[in-house]
Amino acid sequence: MPKRLKVQLNAEQVKQLEQAKRKDKRAEVRQRSTAVHLLHLEHAASEVAELLSVTVQAIYQWYHRFTQGGLEGLANQAKGRPKAKADAFYRQQLEQTLASEPSDFSYDFAIWTVERLRNHLAQKTGRHLSISRLRMILREQQYVYRRPKHDLTNLQDGAAKAAAQVQLAVIKKAPLRTLSNSSLWMKRP
Q1: Cα–Cα dist 81/83, whole Å
Q2: How deeply is 159 buried, as exposed, middle or buried, from its count of CB atoms within 10 A (0-12, 13-18, 19+)?
Q3: Same structural domain for residues 64 and 27?
Q4: In 45, 96, 114, 164, which residue has its Cα 20 to 30 A from 26's Cα atom?
């Protein structure tokens, strides 16, 4: 059998509860002040819980909230937003990651995708964001995804490329010799 709660309220507290039961505009405060007042009148917490269709645990919580915070303690508390996962530290790690190549972190891929960024940052920061949220943060930080341009300059022979550019310049400067003005055919220089 649970231990019975000893409710000891002074005259001022009882007066506050009675006024709140009748005049408070907040329904939860009226209900909770009724419960605390019934406890003061020496009703068992289980009786009060059954009468108000709540749990005994709720009755005890309401009583403790009233003793600690008065009538305002009986009011619903603002929930607030959960703490953002993508705080300044996360955004700093994102910027540092995007400023470096994946090979710097010993990955075997060459470009960052959103999925790869998400997994890497989850390992680094311990915070796992959804892909859509990470995309939103990237947009907020004015990052844009663009396809990589394949560049073969490292495979080209520099001397051969320079010679070809000289030949192209000579060909462009030479006048075109056509057989007639209406023909699509022309003679090579």
Answers
A1: 6
A2: exposed
A3: yes
A4: 45
- Residue numbers of the domain that contains 105: 88-140
Please tell me whether residues 62 and 93 are part of one structural domain. Answer: no
Could you give the count of Cα atoms lying within 13 Å of 38 in the half-sphere of its Cβ?
20
Q: Token digits for 9?
A: 């309220």
Could you report how far apart the first and last alpha carbons of the chain are, in Å? 111
Please give the Cα distance from 98 to 131 (Å, whole number).
16
- Contact partners, residue 168, CB within 8 Å, separation at least 6: none
Does residue 186 sit within a domain?
Answer: no
Residue 146 lies in a domain: no
Summarised one tens digit per residue, pLDDT across range 77-109 is: 877 776 777 888 999 999 999 988 888 899 888
Please tell me the total count of domains within the chain: 2
- Does residue 175 form part of some domain? no
Least confident of 22-26, 28-32, 153-157: 153-157
Q: What pLDDT, on a 0 to 100 scale, did the predictor assign at position 1?
A: 45
